[in-house]
Amino acid sequence: MRSLRTALLLFVLCVPGVHAQNRATLPDFTQLMKKQGPAVVNVTATRKSAPAPSASAGGNSAKPRGGAKEGQPEDPMLEFFRRFLPDPNEREARQGLASGFIISDDGYILTNAHVVDGFDDVSVRLADAKREFKAKVVGFDKRTDVALLKVEAKGLPVAKLGNSKALQPGEWVAAIGSPFGFANTITAGIVSATERSLPDEVYVPFIQTDVAVNPGNSGGPLLNLNGEVVGVNSMIYSGTGGYMGVSFAIPIEVAMTVSKQLQAQGKVVRGRIGIAIQPLTKELAQSFKLDATSGAVVVSVDPSGPAAKAGVKLGDVVLDWNGKPIEDPNELPRMVAASKPGSAAKMRVWRGGKAETVAITVGEVQPDATKTSKESNPKVPPPNRLGLAVRELPPEDRKTLGVEYGLVVVDVARPNAAMPILPGDVIVAVNQQPFKSVEEFNKLIAEAQKGQKIALLVRRGEGALYVPVEAG
Questions:
Q1: What are the start and end residues of each CATH 2.40.10.120 domain in the chain?
Q2: Confidence at residue 82, expressed as pLDDT on a 0 to 100 scale
Q3: pLDDT at position 1, please?
Q4: What is the pLDDT of residue 423?
Q5: Which stretch of DSSP H or E encloses residue 359?
Q6: How many CB atoms lie within 10 A of CB 440?
Q7: Is a pLDDT exceeding 50 seen at residue 71?
Q8: Backbone angles phi and psi of 448, in degrees to 5
Q9: Angle CA(332)–CA(338)–CA(344) in degrees, nearest 5?
């Protein structure tokens, strides 16, 4: 019997074409690399001002963002989905290496907003390593992490764009970029999910993959097997600052919609109605006498916003927007954002055991407190003992956020695992105590001992959270 099994195994191994058939089922990325590799570029961003030395670190380079401090466990809530910037060893020179790809032969290039945000000079080197250009930042949108660059050149190789909506979980994809500065590096994997919603990322339905993405891959293309760009690599889930098997890309349709607005008007315009929502759970649906859990529960209404003026109330369940059902509550902010400010919209809500239709005139999302044009930014103030450079939030921005007073973070001198604050965050309280001036804020943080944790109440986008920061 044993000899019979051995003979059958030898027969299978010797059948012509068995190995060839197995090889044929594996993806071949050679043609993809040849066709799309030339359209992928290296992006180098530099900052003229050097970072202030850290009092606690003795001026040593900071660890990669997302890494745990030695001797301390990782805090997953603080390290969840950190933006990654290239090569932490270059922080002293304020230089970052990233990726991008050419979308027009006359020099328009897509990359990530976090690649260029806060930097003074940006240059682009082509894949042939022979041509390098100084790039102009046409504009960037931090809400989607998309930036548009322009170089003065003609006849450049252009990346072929595809359709991210055709992607399916399990499908092969590849990323081309410059991880750790190694130009034109390709990595491959499969799609884990499409339209993934992430915390504090309300405008982007991310593509989740297991493609190896590391510092320097930011802004590079995610491609399908046809060699078409289906996404822009943007972020990773990491407890170390490096790739851990989960990476996220911005769908190419989202990136192109943003880039067209940036090219046309230098900014992105989004609709707003002035409500906050939460998912409709089974328990809530039962209490509202609803049979299904599709929809979004209104938990906050801006008194001066379009929704309030239209009669939307706390506890309303939004069922559809302009006739499109809300299957996932994360769909509603995207639908509203895609609506043109000033346009008329109809929103069907469930209230008091019956459905009603509300007519709303869409408002406009106000721009971020920090401007997209770096030339218009005033001089960055010196960092405080927390390693944060802050300035007063203007009165008009306070009104938009709905706060009496706040300090906007304009620079982070010690970006590492112990510093989860990001530029653009607005600090409104210290250890549950509000403040009304920079002097009062500095007095509150001065009371902490070195190494002590200070809880900062931070407004980030439309959300609020307490963030523990170690005093230096």
A1: 40-266
A2: 42
A3: 46
A4: 82
A5: strand 354-361
A6: 13
A7: no
A8: -80, 145
A9: 90
Tell me, what's the pLDDT at 138? 95
218 is catalytic: yes
Q: How far apart are CA 197 and CA 211, in angstroms?
A: 18
Q: Which amino acid is at 89?
A: N
CATH superfamily of 271-364: PDZ domain (2.30.42.10)
Q: Which entry of 218, 234, 247, 339 is annotated as an active-site residue? A: 218
State both tokens at 469. Answer: 């920061």
> 145, 316, 397, 425: which one is catalytic?
145
Neighbouring residues of 293: CB distance < 8 A, sequence distance ≥ 6: 279, 280, 281, 282, 285
| Fold entry, domain 381-470 | Pdz3 Domain (2.30.42)
- Token duo for residue 80: 């969840």
Q: Active-site residue 106, yes or no?
A: no
Residue intervals in the chain for CATH 2.30.42.10: 271-364, 381-470
Q: What's residue 462's pLDDT? A: 67
What number is the average pLDDT over the span 27-42? 93
Q: Is 145 tagged catalytic? A: yes
Q: What does the pLDDT read at residue 418?
A: 52
pLDDT of residue 432: 66
* Token digits of residue 139: 């504009």
Residue 356 CB-half CA count within 13 A: 14
Please, which pLDDT band fits residue 434 given cuts at 50, 70 and 90? confident
Paired sense of beta strands 363-364 and 324-325, if any: unpaired
Domain 40-266 has CATH 2.40.10.120: yes
The pTM of this model reads 0.65
Q: Which of 87, 99, 114, 259 is catalytic?
A: 114
